[in-house]
Write a structure and sequence with these properties.
Distance between the termini: 31 Å
Shape: globular
Strand order of the largest sheet: 3-4-6-5-7-8-11-12
Number of domains: 2
Bound molecules: 2-acetamido-2-deoxy-beta-D-glucopyranose
CATH architecture of the largest domain: 3-Layer(aba) Sandwich
CATH superfamily of the largest domain: Alpha/Beta hydrolase fold, catalytic domain
Largest sheet: 8 strands, mixed
Helix content: 25-40%
Order of helices and strands: HEEEEEHEHEHEEHHHHHHHHEHHEEH
CATH class of the largest domain: Alpha Beta
């Protein structure tokens, strides 16, 4: 999903967590909002939104700890009508992106706000963007980074804002996509007196360390375009995996994939690192296939599953290996506008992600999200299933990163995911007024609610769409089922806002 904005180029070995969450946005984003950038609060001469700060406790669960910090949020009254509801868009694993507050871009929640007369807030998640609870990101400070602390921030925010603005009796609706989608559902479950309803788009509600289904959905998404397509990707990747075992092929691999520096492999982890980075070109493409994200100023929105499968089926480009290389080159240069494909060694990656400064190379969210993955969610997209196209970055490689970066053992990681499921209930949701939109080709739907639990906990299935599609601005070429899903969500909101 889309609040993350990075300015720095990151060495990433595999960041296909959600961004959906937080994805391969190493190149895709421009302009991280700086203070004066946003404080102008003018877009095309129209006042649109204001940036403000709220004081929060560092540790909501320790009454003896009185340390405080300031959390950033944006607010727009553009659509508010007296007596209307309050919409709270929850920020996730990256800086909040002010494009979600822009009345010109028409992101879907604002179109609902306009019709329902809602006051709109966008609240940044602690430890991401400019919301810094501690002086840096050293591991001992990250103990205060958790979904439970973030939900407590949200509850406090809701209480204080309602008091300040005389909105105590207003109905608050939480919105979020991907990780924040899960937060939206959990906020309704944990604080039903504060949050009246929730729209939990593409929400991964089940924590899992070995998230091998992710790549199985990638396979099926490619097969839906063309049944040969995932087979060709698999053949290509098998060839690559074979070639990369022999140093005398490094020169050719470097050339074939237009790598920025000559391939260096000194360890198994270096091999896993480059393989996962190259596979990510396809994973990222599938996850965001046709999502109307250009308004977030991400690049490569036109690079789709169709692009992958067209290139993979083109015999004029050579064998499947050469076609895959051609796809990676095309995506890098034509769509991401990069001169070459970044190929960090594992140690270079570690050096970046271990940097604990808020201005460090991974501070846009990569380090923080990795910490949450290692302590709460897992979500590691492993190649452990046989029914998927890639190889070489299995569970062990991925969980050892928790050890290498944070000194977190496999047992701790596994216990953390288990505890998350105990705490939130995984798929076993006892609540009302939460809608769960899911997209059939979004690999994250594998951890989502896949069928309606009750009339009050409906799932909305959007065949053929990817991650968080229903949240992005509508456009002429949207699939009929996507248009219908947006409409169904609107009708649910209308109905729920009439309930007490
Ligand atoms: C590298 O590629 C060239 C041209 O495609 C080929 O002739 C050569 O045999 C390859 N080198 C190796 C070591 O396979
Ligand atoms: C994507 O394609 C559309 C239609 O072909 C075009 O109008 C648009 O400029 C392209 N966007 C980008 C970011 O390349
Ligand atoms: C962390 O990143 C900052 C900003 O890029 C840099 O100045 C600093 O030297 C880095 N620290 C370490 C320990 O590498
Ligand atoms: C991860 O999950 C897959 C599919 O459920 C399974 O085949 C594989 O053995 C698991 N890997 C490990 C290391 O447990
Ligand atoms: C890593 O964690 C272990 C077990 O908790 C601890 O004994 C050890 O001192 C830690 N190592 C470092 C470098 O912090
Ligand atoms: C999404 O939810 C619907 C229920 O409305 C379900 O039928 C469908 O299987 C789900 N889709 C996916 C891909 O999980």
């Amino acid at each position: 999903m889309g609040f993350q904005v990075l300015i720095t180029v990151i060495f990433a070995c595999l960041f296909v967590t959600c961004d959906g969450l937080y994805k391969d946005n190493k190149y895709g984003y421009i302009d991280r909002p700086t203070s004066d950038d946003v404080q102008g609060d003018q877009v095309k001469d129209k006042p649109v939104f204001q940036q403000q700060w709220i004081t929060q406790k560092l540790d909501h669960f320790n009454g003896a700890d009185s340390r405080m910090w300031k959390q950033k949020f944006l607010v727009t009254e553009t659509y508010y009508r007296t007596g209307g509801p309050v919409f709270l868009m929850i920020g996730g694993e990256g800086p909040i992106n002010k494009q979600w507050m822009s009345t010109d871009d028409g992101s879907t929640w604002l179109t609902y706000a306009k019709m329902l007369g809602a006051l709109c807030f966008l609240l940044e998640h602690r430890f991401y963007g400019d919301s810094h609870p501690t002086i840096d990101l050293r591991t001992e400070n990250l103990q205060f980074l958790s979904s439970q602390q973030a939900l407590a921030d949200l509850a406090h925010f809701r209480t204080v804002m309602a008091e300040q603005a005389g909105l105590t009796n207003s109905k608050w609706v939480a919105f979020g996509g991907s990780y924040p989608g899960a937060l939206a559902a959990w906020s309704r479950m944990k604080y039903p007196n504060l949050i009246h309803a929730a729209v939990a788009s593409s929400a991964p509600l089940h924590a899992i360390v070995n998230f091998s289904e992710y790549l199985e959905v990638v396979w099926r998404a490619l097969a839906a375009e063309n049944p040969d397509c995932p087979l060709l990707v698999k053949m290509a990747f098998d060839t690559l995996h074979e070639l990369i075992k022999h140093p005398n092929n490094y020169e050719n691999i470097t050339k074939d994939f237009n790598l920025c520096s000559r391939l260096q492999i000194r360890s198994e982890k270096d091999r896993a690192c480059i393989l996962s980075s190259l596979a990510d070109s396809v994973m990222d493409t599938v996850q965001y296939n046709n999502d109307n994200r250009a308004f977030e100023r991400v690049l490569a929105t036109n690079c789709t599953i169709k692009t992958v499968c067209e290139v993979m089926s083109d015999p004029s480009l050579g064998n499947p290996y050469h076609r895959f290389a051609a796809f990676v080159r095309l995506r890098t240069t034509t769509y991401l506008l990069q001169p070459c494909f970044k190929d960090p060694t594992y140690n270079e990656y570690l050096e970046d992600i271990r940097n604990t400064s808020y201005s460090g190379p991974s501070s846009g969210g990569e380090r923080q999200w990795m910490y949450q993955s290692c302590t709460e969610f897992g979500y590691f997209q492993t190649t452990d299933s046989p029914n998927q196209p890639f190889s070489g970055f299995g569970l062990q490689y991925q969980v050892e990163q928790c050890q290498d970066i944070f000194n977190i053992s496999y047992q701790t990681l596994y216990d953390g995911a288990k505890q998350t499921n105990e705490n939130y209930g995984s798929y076993n949701i006892r609540a009302t007024r939460i809608v769960f939109p899911n997209g059939s080709i979004d690999p994250w739907h594998a951890l989502g609610i896949t069928s309606s639990i009750s009339d009050d906990l409906p799932a909305i299935f959007i065949k053929g769409t990817a991650h968080c599609a229903n949240m992005y601005p509508a456009r002429a070429e949207d699939l009929p089922q996507l248009i219908l899903a947006r409409e169904q969500i609107f009708q649910l909101l209308q109905k729920w806002l009439k309930e007490n």
